[in-house]
Amino acid sequence: MNTTTSLTTSPPDLRHPTLAGLLGLGVYVAAMVAGEAFGLNADSSGTSAGQWAITGLIAVAGLAIGVAFGLRGWTGATQRLARIALGLALASAVLFMAFWSGWPSVFSAVAVGLALEHRRRIGSLDLSVGVAAGLGTLVFVATAIVCVIG
Questions:
Q1: Which residues, 6+ apart, have CB-to-CB distance to 149 below 8 Å?
Q2: Distance between CA atoms of 134 and 123, rounded to whole angstroms?
Q3: What is the pLDDT of residues 35-48, one digit of tens each?
Q4: Which end of the chain is more exposed for a tag (fewer CB within 10 A), N or C?
Q5: Where are the domains of the chain?
């Protein structure tokens, strides 16, 4: 008797708050480095190693906060998931002026991930989740652009 076992692996679930937050942080870092490397930043004086270290610590703190809120929503009922997705999207929009911190990128990525997870669980988007997904996406893209040129 011949037995064939096929092993299938699924891609990582980017809706999970930890992976979404890491994606947001990764895009933030890539955009900041690209802006610095290609001289596109408005700050022509350059960035010192100390400034990079402080900015990195601030960004990691934002990652911890975004993931903590995201996990709280992820493990709760769909109403909590929707509220936290909208809250993170609104927070990312308010924090857009502090794009250099990385928090808008992380918060918006987690907000979009939670909104997509809400859609997966319910099967449709309600108004608050649609706003969270749209606003989160808008802030995510805008922050990446501003990190390159700002």
A1: 35, 40, 41, 42
A2: 17
A3: 888 877 766 666 77
A4: N
A5: 24-149
